[in-house]
Amino acid sequence: MKIALSSWKCSNLDFLVSPEAPVPIVRVIRETESLGGAANVALNLAKLGIKPLLAGFIGQDPVGEKILSLLKAEDILPYLTALADRPTIHKTRILGGHQQMLRIDRERKRPITETHSTVFLATLLDILNAPHPPAVIILSDYAKGTLTEVVCQGIIQHAKQLNIPVLVDPKGDNYAKYRGATTLSPNRKELSEAVQNRTPLLDDLLQAGENLRKDLELEFLTVTLSELGIALMDGQQVRRIPAMAKEVFDVSGAGDTVISTLAAGLAAGLGRMDALHLANLAAGVVVAKVGTCPIEQRELLAALSTEEALNQSDKIRTLPQAMRYITAWQHKGERLVFTNGCFDLLHAGHVDYLEKARQLGSRLIVGLNTDRSIRALKGPTRPIICATDRARVLAALASVDMVILFDEDTPLKLITALRPHILAKGADYTEDQVVGGQEVKSWGGQVSLVPLVEGLSTSHIVDVIRKN
């Protein structure tokens, strides 16, 4: 958990050649400063709404003081020891537009003294033993001498006793010091070096990663694969999540974003695959920025909304699949609205009705008649559009959160399984005519009759087509 100020970044608009020597002259237009290293991990967590605590070492210098100032501004609690025998790690990046041209590093790489290391570990164990210990621990290793094997094992073993997950962003070739952690998140190059795998074949590397996971007794292993996304190994099949970035300007700090978002997801109670999915989305956002930039909560929410809009077909679910989402929505206190229909030849009246139904609660679930059930209700000439296509069009509507096909003549079985808070139906019905109305009221729900747009119906559209 070594701390570094991740550079003064200088953007220039043009290059000149020096008359003194054949070297470029950089005209400085702008300078910015940002937290880097483990401090960038903490910053990512803070921007996601997590309250992070940051432990490590800085130098007794202006850069160290600047770090403390930046941490205070972001409400990050520092447990930082200032050392007199080395400077705060300080990196300067020279940029030309979006392109990094040169990096200047100021640091002294050597292990922390045994005395400082002992005090550091004792401080961390005190934090773990506090009345309100952290939900997740991240070991952000930059191979600067702080995270020795004694420190790593001291934290990991104590955290295990307290059932606190430990996530590690590893460095170097001594992965044995991370034995027993919850997960490691190396990139492809780091994993290749750790397992001494020289083959260019990804499948071979991931198999070696699975062997490493077993050897180190990790619960799972996450490997960032740049443009190929992220791989998860947990003793089952290797699962891959494709990369989400459309443009890549700068990968600086992307690994920090991945491990911090993964930690935030696990702390919030997500499963490892869902948390990793969030981490992958977050990485896709930050690599499209220039320099070391954290993920913002609003950016992650926007990325999730965009992904949902691009994957509307995922809204179409079977009842068993739907129940997992229903349980999660109810647990969060969201009001569920249910409606049903044939929605054959979707028209503006349907769209208006569904938007009004959605406004009654937090989520709108549409029960959609199968082709067989429509024929039973409306005769052999219907439906005009097959069930698969009708479901796909409904799922593309922003007002619809889920589509479930049902084959029965009425949606009663579906309603009693889902137990919605509100049962919506068109105002051309009376309340006592609504199938499932009494059942919904029995568990404290309500029936809502939604006004319809007059003059619009599938039958009317069919008649117009026939006449013309």
Structure description:
By secondary structure, the chain is α/β, with parallel strands linked by helices. It has 16 helices and 19 strands. It is 38% helix and 22% strand. A hairpin with a 5-residue loop joins strand 12 and strand 13. Helix 5 packs across helix 6 and helix 7 packs antiparallel against helix 8. The longest helix is centred in the first third of the chain and has 15 residues. The protein is elongated and about 85 Å long.
Question: How is this fold's topology laid out?
Answer:
Elements: E1 3-12, E2 15-17, E3 24-26, E4 30-37, H1 38-47, E5 53-59, H2 62-73, E6 77-83, E7 89-96, E8 99-106, H3 114-128, E9 137-140, H4 149-161, E10 166-169, E11 183-184, H5 188-195, H6 202-215, E12 220-224, E13 230-233, E14 239-241, H7 254-267, H8 272-286, H9 297-310, H10 319-331, E15 336-341, H11 348-358, E16 363-369, H12 371-378, H13 387-395, E17 402-406, H14 412-418, E18 422-426, H15 437-442, E19 446-450, H16 458-467
Parallel strand pairs: 1-7, 5-6, 9-10, 10-11, 11-12, 15-16, 15-18, 16-17, 18-19
Antiparallel strand pairs: 1-4, 2-3, 7-8, 12-13, 13-14
Helix pairs in contact: 1-7, 3-4, 5-6, 7-8, 8-9
